[in-house]
Amino acid sequence: MDETKDKLICITHYTDDVSLEKLKEDLLGEKEIDILSNTFKALSDPTRLKIIYILSKSSLCVCDIANILDMTQSAISHQLRILRDMKLVKFKKEGKLVIYSLDDDHVLGLFKQGLDHVKHK
C-alpha cells in the first residue's frame, strides 16, 4: 500500500491538535464500550425488542409474554435470560410466579429514543 497516497487524503485537519488530543483523552474505556456494545446487541434482536415493548406496558410472567408473542415459554425464557444478564429486565417472585419488568427507566428511554428515531425518518 502506498503510504504517500494515504497521507494526501487528509492534508489538513478540521480541528486543532489540542482539541483532538482532548477528544482522545476523553474516549470511553474498553470495558464501558464492550458493555455498551453488548447492550445494543441485546436490543438488536426483534423478539427481545418486542419483549421490551410489552414490558414497557406491563409487568408480566413468561406465560403471558409467550402468549402475546405466540411463542413457546422456552423461547421467551431464553430471550429473557439474555435481557436479564444485560440488566435490561429484572424479575420478582410472587409465590411460584416469576414476574418480569424493565430494569429501570433508562431501558425505557433507550427503547423510546430508538422508536422516535425510526418514526421520524
TrEMBL record:
What's one GO MF term for it? DNA binding
Q: Pfam families under this entry?
A: HTH_5 (PF01022)
Instruction: Give residue ranges for domain HTH arsR-type.
Output: 28-121
Q: Is Transcription regulation included in the keywords of this UniProt record?
A: yes
Give the record's keywords alphabetically. Answer: Cadmium resistance, DNA-binding, Transcription, Transcription regulation
Q: Which GO terms describe its biological process?
A: response to cadmium ion
Name the UniProt record assigns to this protein: Winged helix-turn-helix transcriptional regulator
Biological classification of the source: Bacteria, Bacillati, Bacillota, Tissierellia, Tissierellales
